[in-house]
Amino acid sequence: MAFFGQIIKTLLETKHALLPHEPSDPVEAQERQLRKLLETAKNTAFGKFYNFSGLLEADDIRQAYAAAVPIHDYDALNERWWKQQRRTPDITWPGKPDFFALSSGTTGKKSKRIPVTTDMLACTQAVGRGQAECLANFDLPAELFEKDILMLTSSADLHEKDGWREGEISGINVSNLPDFMEGYYKPGLEIAKIADWDERVQRIAEAAPTWDVGALAGIPSWMVMMLRKVIEVNQLKNIHEIWPNLQVYTTGGVAFEPYRKSFEALLAHPIIIMDTYLASEGFFAFNARPGTMSMELAMDHGIYYEFIPHTNEGFDATGTLLEKPRVLDFREVEEDKDYALLVSTPAGAWRYMIGDTIKFTDKAKMEMVITGRTKYWLNVVGSQLSEEKLNAAIQALNDALDCDVKEFTVGAIATEEGDDYLHQWVLGMEKGQVTEEQAAAFLDEHLQSVNKNYQVARSKALRGVKVKITNADTLYRFLEKKKQKGGQIKFPKVMAEEDLRGLLAFMKE
Fold first, then answer.
1. CA 118 to CA 345: how far, in whole Å?
2. Which domains does the chain have, with CATH numbers?
C-alpha cells in the first residue's frame, strides 16, 4: 500500500470535504488583492508618484486606481521604472528583485527582463498549491502521490548579473521549488542546468530507467520531442513501458490540441491532461476539475486583473491599443468574448498588458481559455483570425484529411502587384498524404464557413491562400538557427511578412 501517498490523498480529500473548492467571491477577492498590492507598494517611488496612499482612501478603489495609473506595456514600464529597479531599491516594489525573467515570447526579439521578486515567487507557489489541492477533484490513485514529477523546463543554469540572477521563468521556478519537492522533482537541478537542449534531453533519456515518473509538466512541442528521445534511447514501444505509473500531464504555454495526436501516440493508454496559464509575469490560471480544458483564474492569490475588449473599443485593426481603450474589471466581463489581459502583481507590474487575449467560458466558475495574442491576430486585411481560430482550423484539417500537423505558422504576404495579400501557411506535418493544394483549399473553405470576417476579406483584398508543407523538425531547426530551441520557446502561430519570407527562404535551403 502507498502509505504516504494515501496520507496525502486523504488530506486533500478531507480539506475538500470540509472546505469544498468553490471560487471565492471574485468581487471581494479582487478588491482585497488590489488593496494589498497598493498598501505594500505605497512607499515605493511608483507608489508615491501615483499616490497609492490616496487611492487606498477612495470610495471605489478600483475606479480610482484605473483613473490614476496608466496602462503599461513592457517598453513603457521598463524604460521609466524597471531599469531603475535593477540598481536601486523600492522603485515599483519594496526592495530589489533577486531574479529577472528573460522573455522574448514567440517574437524572437531581444529578451525582456521582467522582475521576479520574493513576493512574486510566493504568489506563484500559492497558485501551485491551489492547483495541487484541486487534484482531489480527479480520480487519482494514492500511489500517484508518491511518484516522481518530471518538469521539462528551460535551463535552470541562471546567469549572475549585477546583483541578481536571470534566466527563463521556468528555470527560475525550478531553482526555487519548495523543500518538500526535492525528492520528487526530476530531472533534478544537475540535469536541468544543462544549457544545451539536445544534451539535456539525452541525459534525461539515459536517466529515465532510474525514475518512477507519475506526472509530466511542460510545453507540448518539446515534451513530445523529449518523450520520443526517451523511447528511442531505451528502445521502447511507448513511454508507459518505462514509466508504467505515468497518469498526469500538465501542459501549458500553447494550445494542446494541435499536439494531441503526436502526444497520445507515445502512450500505451490515455492519461489525465491538465492545462495551466504560467507566464513570465505570473501563474494566472489552472485546470481545476475534470471534463474541461478551461482554466480557473487565480483571483485570490495576490494578482489583480483588468480586461480590455479585443474589439474596436480597445484596439485598432493592427492590434495596437487605442489611446483611450475601454477597460473592465471582473464584474463587467461577459462569456465568449475576447479580452486582452491587464495584471497588477507583487513583482511591481502595474496595469501591465502582457499581450495575451482570453475569453471566459464559465464566469460563475471563473473559467477561461487563452485565445491568442493581441498583436498576433491575423488581421492585415480584416480577416480577424485569432490564434484560437487558427488552431481550430488545423484541428479540423487533421480530422478531415487524416493528417497530423504538429506545428504551423501563417502570415499575410503582399501579392507581386503589391495591392492585395495572400495568406501563406507553413505546416509542419508529422504524417499524412495531403497535398499543399488540398490543404490550402480545405483551410480556405473551412475558415470562410466559420468566420464571417474572413469570408468578407476573401471577397476583397485577401486574394488567395497558399500552403507549404514540411516536417516539424524543419521548423524547430529554424528556431535553432535563431538560438531559440527548447524550454519555454513557442513557435509563432502568426508571423510578420519579413519573418515569414525568412522561414520560406530557410526551407528552400
1. 12
2. 26-92+304-345+348-373 (no CATH), 120-286 (3.40.50), 387-508 (3.30.300)
Q: What is the mean pLDDT of residues 245-256?
A: 89
Strands in 290-401 per DSSP E: 295-297, 304-309, 339-345, 349-362, 367-373
Give per-residue pLDDT as tens, 478-499.
Answer: 887 766 666 566 788 888 888 8
In the chain, DSSP finds a helix count (H) and a strand count (E) of 18, 18
- Determine phi and psi for 359, rounding to 5 degrees: -140, 145
Is 102 exposed, middle or buried (CB count within 10 Å of its CB: 0-12, 13-18, 19+)? buried
Sheet strands side by side (includes 148-151): 185-186, 148-151, 213-217, 248-252, 272-279, 282-286, 295-297, 367-373, 349-362, 339-345, 304-309
Structure confidence at residue 24 as a pLDDT band (50, 70, 90): low
Give the closest residue to 221 by CA, choosing from 36, 403, 479. Answer: 479
pLDDT given for residue 63 in this prediction: 95
Yes or no: say if 202 and 225 are a contact pair by the CB < 8 Å rule.
Answer: no
How high is the pLDDT of residue 305? 97
For residues 125 and 175, give the distance between their C-alpha atoms in angstroms, rounded to a whole number: 12
| Three-state SS letters, 45-101 | HHHHHCCHHHHCCCCCHHHHHHHHCCCECHHHHHHHHHHHHCCCCCCCCCCCCCEEE
31-45, 199-213, 386-400: least confident range:
386-400
Q: Where are the alpha helices (DSSP H) in 234-294?
A: 260-264
Compute the half-sphere exposure of residue 398: CA atoms within 13 Å on the CB side of its CA. Answer: 22
Asked if residues 326 and 333 have their Cβ atoms less than 8 Å apart, the reply is no
**Angstrom distance (rounded) from CA 406 to CA 395:** 10
Would you call 127 helix, strand, or coil by DSSP?
helix
**By the 8 A CB rule, do 409 and 431 touch?**
no
- What residues pair up with 35 in beta bridges, in sequence order? none
Amino acid at site 179: D
Please give the Cα distance from 45 to 55 (Å, whole number).
15
Q: Which of 397, 400, 399, 375 is nearest to 387 (CA)?
A: 375
Q: How confident is the model at residue 22 (pLDDT cuts 50, 70, 90)?
A: low
Residue 253 has pLDDT above 90, yes or no: no
DSSP secondary structure letter of residue 250? E
Contact predicate 162/87, CB 8 Å:
yes
Spatial contact of 436 and 469, defined as CB atoms under 8 Å apart:
yes
Beta bridge partners of 11: none
Share of the chain above pLDDT 90, in %: 57
Look at residue 6 in the predicted model and tell me its pLDDT.
Answer: 47
- pLDDT tens digits for range 347-383: 999 999 998 899 999 999 999 999 887 766 676 666 7
Say which residue the cell 522533482 belongs to: 185
